[in-house]
Amino acid sequence: MTSFAGRVAVVTGAGGGLGRAYALELARRGTCVVVNDIGGDAAGKVAAEIAACGGSAAASHHSVASRVGGAAIVNLAIEAFGRIDILISNAGILRQARFDEMVEADIDSVIDVHLKGAFHVGQPAFAAMKRQGYGRMLFTASSSGLFGHPWQASYAAAKAGIVGLANTIALEGRDHGVLCNVIMPNARTSMAEGVDFAWRTEVTKAGAALARLMATPLGGGDRLDPDWVVPLAIHLVSDEMRTTHGIFSACCGRYARVAISTAQGWAAPALPSVEDIAAHWTQICDAGVLAEPMSVYDEALAVRQALAKLA
């Protein structure tokens, strides 16, 4: 069994659902866990559950939505257990509305918890990991962010932003022993169960896909149970993990790396006109040959190589 003995983890949003499942499995494998959640005494109950099984845990009720809260969560890990080796940034909320009807509170509250929350906890955690020369950071994105979901514009924007944040952390952390990846989990949680599917009659293409999905059996067992996500998440924060700068999907028992790619495209020999773009549109959109830049400079290098062929 992969051991986490001696490791210290922070799991945000761990009072229930995915976060609780992560915290329990980490503790079962010997990790000291800071269980963070602002919901009542949910964090305390999970910490007590871990202690009852012989594990070590501390409960945090600080909010990730503030810099003070984020720092307090990480400081608790260091004060209680001497260090922080693992961060699973999982806390989240959902606000649903048509894009043109979203009010500012629907936007700000979601961005504050998801995207700014990832900064608030991630920065002090990264600093501590960098000092000690070791760390595993796992941020929670969503297929809603990378692929889209009706009536979830603020949630999708925040989750897509987390991918950019994690990619940058991965580049900065690699040489310091700090690895950073992203997980896109699909699970039946209290947040997921609150999704309003009334959009189906207004967004017909996505609605049709949902109807086909609901008519198709997913195989044995409840594959949307959080336990189906846990193995991937725990592997991504283990000592054995060597991958960084990755995005991984856990969807109903299918585990897959998700790639952000560019088409080969068309390299203009000179400053193009609008008509030139239109004339080469098929080539620009052709996804038959894909490249996967791992930084902005990788993309620029690919462009330089394409331009060299024009010489």
Q: Supply the helix-strand structural class.
A: alpha/beta
Percent range of helical residues = 40-55%
H/E element string? EHEHEHEHEHHEHHHEEEHHEH
| Distance, first to last CA | 56 Å
Strand arrangement across the biggest beta sheet: 3-2-1-4-5-6-7-8
Output the CATH topology of the largest domain: Rossmann fold
Average pLDDT confidence is 94
Overall CATH class of the largest domain: Alpha Beta
Count of runs of 4 or more consecutive helical residues? 12
What is the CATH architecture term of the largest domain?
Answer: 3-Layer(aba) Sandwich
User: How big is the Rg?
Assistant: 21 Å
Q: What does this protein look like?
A:
The protein is an alpha/beta fold and 311 residues long. It has 2 domains: 8-258, Rossmann fold (3-Layer(aba) Sandwich), CATH 3.40.50; 262-308, no CATH class. 45% of the residues lie in helices and 15% in strands. It has an 8-stranded mixed sheet with strand order 3-2-1-4-5-6-7-8, with helices on both faces. A two-stranded antiparallel ribbon has the order 9-10. The longest helix has 29 residues, at 104-132. It starts with 7 loop residues before the first strand and ends with a helix.
